[in-house]
Amino acid sequence: MKVVFLGNGEAFDERYPNHSHLVLSDKTAIMLDCGDSAVRQIWKYTKDYSLVDALYITHRHSDHLFGIPALLGRMLEEGRKKELTIICSEQIKTDIERLTEHAYFGINSYGFEVKFVIAEDGKEIKFNDLKLSFAKTGHTAYNLAVRIEDKKDVVCYSGDGPMEGDNENLYKNADLLMHECYMYDKKLPGHVVAVDLFEMAKRQNVKCLALAHFKRVFNDETRKKVKEAIPETGLKIILPEPMEEYEV
CATH second-level architecture of 2-247? Predict the structure, then answer.
C-alpha cells in the first residue's frame, strides 16, 4: 500500500491542513477523515474525481468531518458517476446527511450513489481488497481508530485519542501507524502525548510511527523534542509534511 499524508494539523492550525490521509492499495483508494481544511488536499494530489472509492470518518469533530460537503459538491460538479462509500458510525451518518443538506441545500441528490457502511467498535468490514477493523479510543467525542489490511500490508490510523486496555491490540504489528500526538509529555484530556506513543509502539511492534496533529501553539517545540528523542526510542518515527508520500 501507499499512503499520501494529505494533512497533519490539528483543528485550528493555520499552517497545516487538518489531519487526513489517502491510503492506496492495488484496487482501492480510501480517504481517512475529511476536515474543513483537508478537503482541498485531495485535489492537489489528483484531478481524477473518481479516484476515491471510500471515505472513512473517525469522529464528529469539524476538523475530521466538515470538509465532506465540499468534497461531495466538487465530485458532483465534475460529473462523478462512480459510487462512493462512506464508512462511519451511525451517529456520523446522521451528521453527514444533516451537514451536507445544510451546507448545500439539495446536494443529497448527488448525481452519484453514496452508500453508507456502519463502523462499530470491534467490528470488521471487507471492502474491495481491504479488511477494515475498528476500536474505540478515549477521545472527547466517540472515535473509532481503524486498521486497514490487504494481503501484504497493515496500515492503522488513530483519529484522535488514546487507546484503552486491549483495544490497543488494533495496532499490533502495523507496518505504519498514523497517530495524533498533541503534546510531547504534557497530558490533556482526549489526546495523546509522544512519550506514551513511544511505549505503545514498542508494545505493539509497530514498524513505523507517523506522528501529526500537534497542538498548534507548541507545534515547533513538540516536533523538536520528538526528533531529539528518536535515537533513544529505537523506533522508526516520521513527522510527515502535507502531501508527503510513504510506500509501506
Answer: 4-Layer Sandwich (3.60)
